[in-house]
Design a protein that fits this description.
Length: 349
Protein backbone atom coordinates (compact mmCIF):
# COMPACT_ATOMS: atom_id res chain seq x y z
CA UNK A 1 0.00 0.00 0.00
CA UNK A 2 1.64 3.28 -1.08
CA UNK A 3 1.89 6.10 1.41
CA UNK A 4 0.01 9.23 0.36
CA UNK A 5 1.64 12.56 -0.24
CA UNK A 6 0.73 15.35 2.16
CA UNK A 7 -0.87 17.66 -0.39
CA UNK A 8 -2.90 14.86 -1.97
CA UNK A 9 -4.11 13.67 1.44
CA UNK A 10 -5.25 17.14 2.46
CA UNK A 11 -7.06 17.54 -0.84
CA UNK A 12 -8.87 14.24 -0.35
CA UNK A 13 -9.99 15.24 3.16
CA UNK A 14 -11.25 18.61 1.93
CA UNK A 15 -13.13 16.97 -0.91
CA UNK A 16 -14.91 14.82 1.70
CA UNK A 17 -15.69 17.94 3.74
CA UNK A 18 -17.37 19.60 0.77
CA UNK A 19 -19.28 16.40 -0.02
CA UNK A 20 -20.62 16.36 3.56
CA UNK A 21 -21.58 20.01 3.16
CA UNK A 22 -23.49 19.26 -0.05
CA UNK A 23 -25.36 16.42 1.64
CA UNK A 24 -26.31 18.47 4.71
CA UNK A 25 -27.52 21.32 2.50
CA UNK A 26 -29.63 18.85 0.50
CA UNK A 27 -31.12 17.40 3.69
CA UNK A 28 -32.02 20.93 4.82
CA UNK A 29 -33.77 21.74 1.54
CA UNK A 30 -30.91 23.90 0.25
CA UNK A 31 -29.47 21.53 -2.33
CA UNK A 32 -29.96 24.00 -5.17
CA UNK A 33 -27.92 26.60 -3.32
CA UNK A 34 -24.77 24.44 -3.23
CA UNK A 35 -23.55 25.15 -6.78
CA UNK A 36 -24.05 28.93 -6.46
CA UNK A 37 -22.17 28.81 -3.15
CA UNK A 38 -19.20 27.14 -4.84
CA UNK A 39 -19.35 29.67 -7.68
CA UNK A 40 -19.25 32.55 -5.19
CA UNK A 41 -16.09 30.98 -3.74
CA UNK A 42 -14.53 30.68 -7.19
CA UNK A 43 -14.64 26.87 -7.10
CA UNK A 44 -15.31 25.08 -10.38
CA UNK A 45 -15.30 21.34 -11.12
CA UNK A 46 -11.53 21.40 -11.59
CA UNK A 47 -11.10 22.24 -7.91
CA UNK A 48 -12.32 18.76 -7.02
CA UNK A 49 -9.84 16.89 -9.21
CA UNK A 50 -8.98 13.30 -8.36
CA UNK A 51 -5.45 14.03 -7.14
CA UNK A 52 -4.79 17.67 -6.32
CA UNK A 53 -7.25 20.46 -6.95
CA UNK A 54 -7.39 23.97 -5.55
CA UNK A 55 -9.37 23.26 -2.38
CA UNK A 56 -8.08 24.89 0.80
CA UNK A 57 -9.19 25.11 4.40
CA UNK A 58 -9.71 28.82 3.85
CA UNK A 59 -12.31 28.18 1.14
CA UNK A 60 -14.06 25.62 3.34
CA UNK A 61 -14.19 28.12 6.20
CA UNK A 62 -15.52 30.76 3.81
CA UNK A 63 -18.30 28.38 2.77
CA UNK A 64 -19.32 27.80 6.39
CA UNK A 65 -19.25 31.53 7.14
CA UNK A 66 -21.47 32.24 4.11
CA UNK A 67 -24.03 29.71 5.36
CA UNK A 68 -23.81 31.08 8.90
CA UNK A 69 -24.63 34.55 7.59
CA UNK A 70 -27.67 33.11 5.84
CA UNK A 71 -28.70 31.37 9.07
CA UNK A 72 -30.99 28.76 7.51
CA UNK A 73 -29.19 25.67 8.86
CA UNK A 74 -29.46 25.51 12.64
CA UNK A 75 -26.61 23.51 14.17
CA UNK A 76 -24.66 23.33 10.91
CA UNK A 77 -21.46 22.29 12.68
CA UNK A 78 -23.18 19.52 14.65
CA UNK A 79 -24.80 18.15 11.49
CA UNK A 80 -21.53 18.21 9.56
CA UNK A 81 -19.64 16.57 12.43
CA UNK A 82 -22.26 13.82 12.70
CA UNK A 83 -21.35 12.72 9.16
CA UNK A 84 -17.66 12.28 9.89
CA UNK A 85 -16.15 8.81 9.97
CA UNK A 86 -12.60 7.53 9.90
CA UNK A 87 -12.90 7.10 6.14
CA UNK A 88 -13.37 10.90 5.93
CA UNK A 89 -9.78 11.36 7.07
CA UNK A 90 -8.18 8.36 5.43
CA UNK A 91 -4.57 7.57 6.18
CA UNK A 92 -4.08 9.63 9.35
CA UNK A 93 -7.37 8.40 10.84
CA UNK A 94 -6.32 4.83 10.13
CA UNK A 95 -3.17 5.56 12.12
CA UNK A 96 -5.20 6.88 15.05
CA UNK A 97 -7.54 3.91 15.39
CA UNK A 98 -4.68 1.42 14.96
CA UNK A 99 -3.00 2.76 18.11
CA UNK A 100 -4.67 0.23 20.38
CA UNK A 101 -6.03 2.43 23.19
CA UNK A 102 -8.09 5.56 23.60
CA UNK A 103 -5.24 7.63 25.06
CA UNK A 104 -2.74 6.58 22.39
CA UNK A 105 -5.34 7.34 19.72
CA UNK A 106 -5.99 10.76 21.27
CA UNK A 107 -2.26 11.61 21.25
CA UNK A 108 -1.89 10.55 17.62
CA UNK A 109 -4.95 12.59 16.67
CA UNK A 110 -3.51 15.66 18.42
CA UNK A 111 -0.21 15.28 16.57
CA UNK A 112 -1.93 14.96 13.19
CA UNK A 113 -4.80 17.38 13.81
CA UNK A 114 -3.51 20.06 11.46
CA UNK A 115 -3.92 17.62 8.59
CA UNK A 116 -7.63 17.47 9.45
CA UNK A 117 -8.36 21.11 10.14
CA UNK A 118 -5.59 23.21 8.66
CA UNK A 119 -3.71 25.95 10.45
CA UNK A 120 -6.87 27.58 11.83
CA UNK A 121 -7.52 24.88 14.45
CA UNK A 122 -5.13 22.84 16.57
CA UNK A 123 -5.69 20.18 19.20
CA UNK A 124 -3.74 20.14 22.45
CA UNK A 125 -4.06 16.88 24.40
CA UNK A 126 -3.08 16.39 28.01
CA UNK A 127 -3.86 14.25 31.07
CA UNK A 128 -5.09 16.36 33.99
CA UNK A 129 -5.32 14.12 37.07
CA UNK A 130 -8.72 12.42 36.69
CA UNK A 131 -9.28 13.69 33.16
CA UNK A 132 -8.03 13.41 29.60
CA UNK A 133 -8.46 16.89 28.10
CA UNK A 134 -8.55 17.87 24.46
CA UNK A 135 -8.30 21.65 23.97
CA UNK A 136 -9.02 23.29 20.61
CA UNK A 137 -6.78 26.27 19.88
CA UNK A 138 -7.97 28.66 17.19
CA UNK A 139 -5.95 30.88 14.87
CA UNK A 140 -6.87 33.67 14.44
CA UNK A 141 -8.20 33.88 18.02
CA UNK A 142 -11.71 35.01 17.07
CA UNK A 143 -12.33 31.60 15.48
CA UNK A 144 -12.60 30.25 19.01
CA UNK A 145 -16.10 31.79 18.98
CA UNK A 146 -16.99 30.34 15.58
CA UNK A 147 -19.62 27.90 16.84
CA UNK A 148 -19.92 26.02 13.55
CA UNK A 149 -16.20 25.17 13.43
CA UNK A 150 -15.89 24.20 17.09
CA UNK A 151 -19.10 22.18 17.34
CA UNK A 152 -18.14 20.32 14.15
CA UNK A 153 -14.79 19.36 15.70
CA UNK A 154 -16.44 18.21 18.94
CA UNK A 155 -19.12 16.19 17.13
CA UNK A 156 -16.44 14.62 14.92
CA UNK A 157 -14.50 13.47 17.98
CA UNK A 158 -17.58 11.74 19.36
CA UNK A 159 -18.26 9.98 16.07
CA UNK A 160 -14.68 8.78 15.63
CA UNK A 161 -14.36 7.46 19.17
CA UNK A 162 -17.71 5.68 18.92
CA UNK A 163 -16.62 4.08 15.66
CA UNK A 164 -13.35 2.78 17.07
CA UNK A 165 -14.30 1.90 20.66
CA UNK A 166 -17.20 0.26 22.42
CA UNK A 167 -18.70 0.75 25.85
CA UNK A 168 -17.92 4.47 26.28
CA UNK A 169 -20.32 6.06 28.76
CA UNK A 170 -20.55 9.59 27.40
CA UNK A 171 -22.52 10.78 30.42
CA UNK A 172 -19.14 10.79 32.20
CA UNK A 173 -17.62 13.23 29.68
CA UNK A 174 -17.94 17.00 29.32
CA UNK A 175 -17.85 19.54 26.50
CA UNK A 176 -16.88 23.14 27.30
CA UNK A 177 -17.33 25.94 24.78
CA UNK A 178 -16.07 29.52 24.79
CA UNK A 179 -19.03 30.93 22.91
CA UNK A 180 -22.42 31.67 24.56
CA UNK A 181 -25.30 29.22 24.15
CA UNK A 182 -26.38 29.42 20.48
CA UNK A 183 -30.00 29.71 19.38
CA UNK A 184 -29.98 26.02 18.48
CA UNK A 185 -28.68 24.96 21.91
CA UNK A 186 -31.47 22.34 22.16
CA UNK A 187 -29.67 20.40 19.40
CA UNK A 188 -26.66 19.93 21.67
CA UNK A 189 -28.69 17.81 24.07
CA UNK A 190 -29.96 15.72 21.15
CA UNK A 191 -26.67 15.28 19.29
CA UNK A 192 -23.77 15.56 21.76
CA UNK A 193 -24.09 12.74 24.32
CA UNK A 194 -22.43 14.62 27.19
CA UNK A 195 -22.92 17.61 29.46
CA UNK A 196 -22.24 20.87 27.61
CA UNK A 197 -21.38 24.24 29.17
CA UNK A 198 -20.85 27.60 27.50
CA UNK A 199 -18.98 30.88 28.13
CA UNK A 200 -15.98 28.84 29.29
CA UNK A 201 -12.30 29.91 29.20
CA UNK A 202 -11.45 27.37 26.46
CA UNK A 203 -13.06 25.05 23.93
CA UNK A 204 -12.40 21.61 25.41
CA UNK A 205 -13.57 18.02 25.63
CA UNK A 206 -13.03 16.29 28.97
CA UNK A 207 -12.93 12.48 29.14
CA UNK A 208 -12.53 10.39 32.32
CA UNK A 209 -8.95 9.21 32.82
CA UNK A 210 -10.37 5.69 33.21
CA UNK A 211 -10.95 5.73 29.45
CA UNK A 212 -7.21 5.90 28.77
CA UNK A 213 -6.76 2.17 28.27
CA UNK A 214 -10.09 1.44 26.59
CA UNK A 215 -8.96 -0.70 23.64
CA UNK A 216 -9.61 0.17 20.05
CA UNK A 217 -11.64 -2.48 18.26
CA UNK A 218 -9.52 -1.74 15.19
CA UNK A 219 -6.09 -1.76 16.86
CA UNK A 220 -3.42 -3.42 14.74
CA UNK A 221 0.33 -3.24 15.41
CA UNK A 222 1.31 -3.69 11.75
CA UNK A 223 -1.04 -0.96 10.51
CA UNK A 224 0.04 1.26 13.42
CA UNK A 225 3.71 0.97 12.43
CA UNK A 226 2.94 1.56 8.75
CA UNK A 227 0.80 4.64 9.44
CA UNK A 228 3.23 6.15 11.94
CA UNK A 229 6.04 5.87 9.40
CA UNK A 230 3.81 7.40 6.72
CA UNK A 231 2.72 10.20 9.01
CA UNK A 232 6.34 10.95 9.86
CA UNK A 233 7.16 11.09 6.15
CA UNK A 234 4.32 13.55 5.58
CA UNK A 235 5.53 15.68 8.48
CA UNK A 236 9.05 15.64 7.06
CA UNK A 237 7.54 16.76 3.75
CA UNK A 238 5.75 19.57 5.56
CA UNK A 239 8.82 20.65 7.50
CA UNK A 240 10.88 20.85 4.32
CA UNK A 241 8.69 23.77 3.27
CA UNK A 242 8.49 25.49 6.67
CA UNK A 243 10.97 27.90 8.22
CA UNK A 244 12.56 27.44 11.63
CA UNK A 245 10.36 30.28 12.90
CA UNK A 246 7.17 28.54 11.74
CA UNK A 247 8.18 25.23 13.30
CA UNK A 248 9.11 26.81 16.63
CA UNK A 249 5.91 28.85 16.60
CA UNK A 250 3.94 25.59 16.29
CA UNK A 251 5.70 24.16 19.36
CA UNK A 252 5.17 27.32 21.42
CA UNK A 253 1.46 27.45 20.60
CA UNK A 254 0.84 24.09 22.31
CA UNK A 255 3.13 24.75 25.29
CA UNK A 256 1.68 25.43 28.71
CA UNK A 257 1.32 29.22 29.13
CA UNK A 258 3.81 30.57 31.63
CA UNK A 259 6.03 27.48 31.30
CA UNK A 260 7.53 28.19 27.91
CA UNK A 261 10.26 25.83 26.66
CA UNK A 262 13.72 27.25 26.05
CA UNK A 263 15.81 26.79 22.93
CA UNK A 264 17.45 23.52 24.13
CA UNK A 265 14.05 21.89 24.68
CA UNK A 266 12.70 23.21 21.38
CA UNK A 267 15.73 21.96 19.46
CA UNK A 268 15.28 18.55 21.07
CA UNK A 269 11.62 18.50 19.99
CA UNK A 270 12.70 19.34 16.44
CA UNK A 271 15.38 16.65 16.51
CA UNK A 272 18.08 19.18 15.60
CA UNK A 273 21.25 20.52 17.28
CA UNK A 274 20.60 23.67 19.29
CA UNK A 275 23.30 25.60 17.41
CA UNK A 276 21.62 24.77 14.08
CA UNK A 277 18.24 26.04 15.29
CA UNK A 278 19.79 29.22 16.69
CA UNK A 279 21.69 29.85 13.44
CA UNK A 280 18.52 29.18 11.46
CA UNK A 281 16.57 31.80 13.42
CA UNK A 282 19.37 34.34 12.96
CA UNK A 283 19.37 33.68 9.22
CA UNK A 284 15.60 34.27 9.17
CA UNK A 285 16.03 37.54 11.02
CA UNK A 286 14.22 36.60 14.21
CA UNK A 287 14.81 35.31 17.74
CA UNK A 288 13.11 32.96 20.16
CA UNK A 289 12.07 35.94 22.28
CA UNK A 290 10.37 37.60 19.31
CA UNK A 291 8.50 34.39 18.46
CA UNK A 292 7.49 33.85 22.08
CA UNK A 293 6.19 37.39 22.39
CA UNK A 294 4.09 36.83 19.30
CA UNK A 295 2.58 33.62 20.67
CA UNK A 296 1.82 35.29 24.02
CA UNK A 297 -0.03 38.08 22.22
CA UNK A 298 -1.96 35.55 20.11
CA UNK A 299 -3.07 33.69 23.22
CA UNK A 300 -3.87 36.95 24.99
CA UNK A 301 -6.16 37.94 22.12
CA UNK A 302 -7.99 34.63 22.36
CA UNK A 303 -8.43 34.95 26.12
CA UNK A 304 -9.52 38.59 25.89
CA UNK A 305 -12.31 37.55 23.56
CA UNK A 306 -13.86 35.78 26.56
CA UNK A 307 -15.59 38.47 28.68
CA UNK A 308 -15.76 36.11 31.67
CA UNK A 309 -11.98 36.39 32.23
CA UNK A 310 -10.60 39.46 33.95
CA UNK A 311 -7.50 41.08 32.51
CA UNK A 312 -5.68 40.34 35.75
CA UNK A 313 -6.51 36.65 35.44
CA UNK A 314 -5.36 36.62 31.81
CA UNK A 315 -2.06 38.23 32.77
CA UNK A 316 -1.36 35.57 35.38
CA UNK A 317 -2.38 32.74 33.03
CA UNK A 318 0.17 33.94 30.50
CA UNK A 319 2.97 33.99 33.02
CA UNK A 320 3.18 37.71 33.81
CA UNK A 321 4.12 38.40 37.42
CA UNK A 322 2.17 41.67 37.44
CA UNK A 323 -0.82 42.80 35.32
CA UNK A 324 0.83 46.14 34.39
CA UNK A 325 3.62 44.21 32.64
CA UNK A 326 1.02 42.41 30.54
CA UNK A 327 -0.81 45.67 29.88
CA UNK A 328 2.35 47.34 28.53
CA UNK A 329 3.41 44.33 26.44
CA UNK A 330 -0.01 43.94 24.84
CA UNK A 331 -0.40 47.64 24.08
CA UNK A 332 3.09 47.85 22.60
CA UNK A 333 2.44 44.83 20.35
CA UNK A 334 -1.07 45.65 19.13
CA UNK A 335 -1.48 49.41 19.51
CA UNK A 336 -4.58 48.74 21.63
CA UNK A 337 -5.02 48.38 25.35
CA UNK A 338 -6.45 45.03 26.49
CA UNK A 339 -9.77 46.80 27.22
CA UNK A 340 -9.85 48.36 23.76
CA UNK A 341 -9.11 45.02 22.10
CA UNK A 342 -11.85 43.30 24.12
CA UNK A 343 -14.39 45.96 23.18
CA UNK A 344 -13.53 45.68 19.50
CA UNK A 345 -13.67 41.88 19.57
CA UNK A 346 -17.15 41.95 21.09
CA UNK A 347 -18.34 44.48 18.49
CA UNK A 348 -17.04 42.29 15.66
CA UNK A 349 -18.87 39.19 16.85
Amino acid sequence: MPRPKLRAERHRILRNYFQDLAEVMAEEGLGEAYAPLLADLGLGPEAFGDVEGSLTFDTYLAALEALDRDGRIAGLGLKLGARKRHRTFGFVAMGAIAQGSMLASHHFAAASFELYWGSFLRLEGRVDQAWIVGRYLASPPELAFHATIIEQAAMTAVCLFNEAMTGLDWSQAQARFMFPPPKHVALYARMLPMACSFDQPYNELWFPASWAEVPSTLGDATIKEFCEAGFQAMMDEERATRTYAQRIHDLLVVAEPGHWPGLPALAQRLGLPERKVRAGLVAEGTTLRTLLNGVIIEQAQQLLANPRLSIKEIAFRLGFAQPPSFYRAFTRATGLTPEQFRTRAQQDR
